[in-house]
Design brief:
With 188 residues, this protein is an alpha+beta fold. It contains 4 helices and 6 strands. Helix 3 runs antiparallel to helix 4. The longest helix has 61 residues. The chain starts with a helix and ends with a strand.
């Protein structure tokens, strides 16, 4: 019996040949396994198209927001330049106001001359009003360092503290921006 179970050496397959025979089968199995996940990972054309559309939509929204910011910034710069130019032009006309107001204060025997100066002054004031220019600095107002320049002080109990007693030069503002500060005397 022992002889029957014994396999002759001639019929056995050498070990070096067996792995070679199995190797192509293993490589084929590994290649199949590798090919299967690759088939599963293959991108879906619909998903790719949706991703591309989403990316383009995002780019469009960013471009639209950038353009809107550019438009707003340009409009703000244009408004600022216009306001500054307007303020500069008004600043050049302030001496005309000063001269006309001094002419209004002078007494004259010629009624026609006085009427002409009044009409010129009133016309000038209408133009300033249309340009949104405000003239400020009247006696009795409260002193404000944002609008007034106090060049003199007076100690008098008849006035409240910080009250403007006398105005030497009127102040001008354009849209809230002071063009010229009012030169005043205040009470302490």
């Amino acid at each position: 019996m022992a002889e029957e179970t014994k396999i002759p050496e001639e019929q056995t397959v050498p070990e070096t040949e067996a792995p070679e025979a199995e190797a192509p089968a293993e490589e084929t199995a590994k290649a199949t396994e590798a090919a299967e996940p690759a088939a599963e990972e293959a991108p879906d054309p619909l998903q790719e198209a949706q991703d591309a559309l989403k990316k383009e939509h995002d780019n469009y929204l960013r471009l639209a927001a950038e353009y809107d910011n550019f438009r707003k910034r340009t409009q703000k710069e244009k408004d600022t330049l216009f306001r500054d130019g307007k303020a500069s032009a008004v600043e050049q006309f302030i001496p005309v106001y000063d001269n006309l107001s001094r002419a209004m204060e002078q007494e004259t025997a010629d009624a026609a001359y006085k009427k002409g100066v009044e009409m010129t002054f009133n016309g000038f004031m209408e133009i300033l009003k249309k340009l949104d220019v405000t003239v400020f600095g009247e006696p009795g107002e409260t002193f404000s360092p944002e609008k007034h320049n106090a060049v003199m002080h007076i100690e008098d109990d008849n006035y409240k503290e910080g009250e403007i007693v006398q105005v030497f030069q009127k102040g001008f503002s354009l849209g809230g921006k002071v063009i010229r500060f009012a030169m005043v005397q205040t009470a302490n």
